[in-house]
Amino acid sequence: MKIGFIGLGAMGSGIAANILNAGHEVVAWNRSSGAVKALGEKGVKAANEPEDVLAGDALFSMLASDAAMRDVGLDGALLDRAPRGLVHVNMATVSVAFARELDRAHKKRGLGYVAAPVFGRPDVAAAGRLTVIAAGDALLVDRVRPILEKIGARFVVVGDKPEQANLLKIAGNFMIASAIETMGEAVALARKGGIEPSVFVDVMTNGLFASPMYQTYGSIIAERKFEPAGFKLTLGLKDAGLTLAAARELEVALPLASVVHDHFVEAKAKGLGVKDWSSLASLAAARAGLKE
Q1: C-alpha angle 240/180/250, rounded to 5°?
Q2: Do 178 and 263 contact (CB within 8 A), yes or no?
Q3: Residue 119: what are its φ and ψ, rounded to 5°?
Q4: pTM above 0.90, yes or no
């Protein structure tokens, strides 16, 4: 298949490379040219303008936010230039309300729309080990399933409404952010009492909390290595806001989500925005009177 791709950030680059490695032709556009050039050495074709990626069998996009998608025109202006029948697979974590808006915008123009956000950090994306969560019309999902199955170790269809995939991703990121907050506080407690953080994390993440998520973030928090950022804290703040927006719409009380959101705001105000979102844990250390 000929695949158009928009958004070659830390996640998008790995995904696009794996689509190429699966034997598909990939034409990509990115706001900055460096990422396109790097993938061009692997065989990805560079597009001069966003509309140049619309001529294929499907369009994939991985952008940072609702606003980033609007800036490119994926909510309207760019879609007006797409041929009828094109399927757009949006892998970004966007708000539930915007997901509905995108679905309507595509249907209005005779275009297919599938939401397929993913769980995993950039190294996981590069290794093709993502968890891919898809939702949309069953026929459209089946049409792009062979590609989505190649970029992840697990592929799950959660419903026929695209926003269901985004809601699951938002809820999942809330769980991860809450775990980071909890680990940060627990490590601060253990560390203040003279326990080596790496020992505490090893005991907990190789026992009761033996999972890749706890092991990855537990290690980062114990070693206090928040750079380079696999997932920037500013994006964690954005997703925390999406959690609260979804909770308001669905009338679900999430008191912990409010606390986590406020801590992300505090962390960003203290200059941690470009660090990994696990740097949220440094606030707990500071409140305990611990120094870096």
Answers
A1: 30
A2: no
A3: -110, 130
A4: yes
Q: How far apart are CA 280 and CA 284, in angstroms?
A: 8
What string of DSSP letters covers 124-161?
Answer: HHHTT-EEEEEES-HHHHHHHHHHHHHHEEEEEEEESS
> Catalytic amino acids?
169
User: Tens digit of pLDDT for each residue in 32-87?
Assistant: 888 888 899 899 999 999 999 999 999 999 999 999 999 999 999 999 999 999 99
Select the CATH number that applies to the domain covering 2-160 from these four: 3.40.50.720, 3.40.50.1000, 3.30.450.20, 3.30.870.10: 3.40.50.720
The topology under which CATH files domain 167-287 is N-(1-d-carboxylethyl)-l-norvaline Dehydrogenase; domain 2 (1.10.1040)
Taking Cα atoms as reference points, which of 133, 68, 100, 102 lies closest to residue 249? Answer: 100
Count other C-beta atoms under 10 Å from residue 249's C-beta: 12
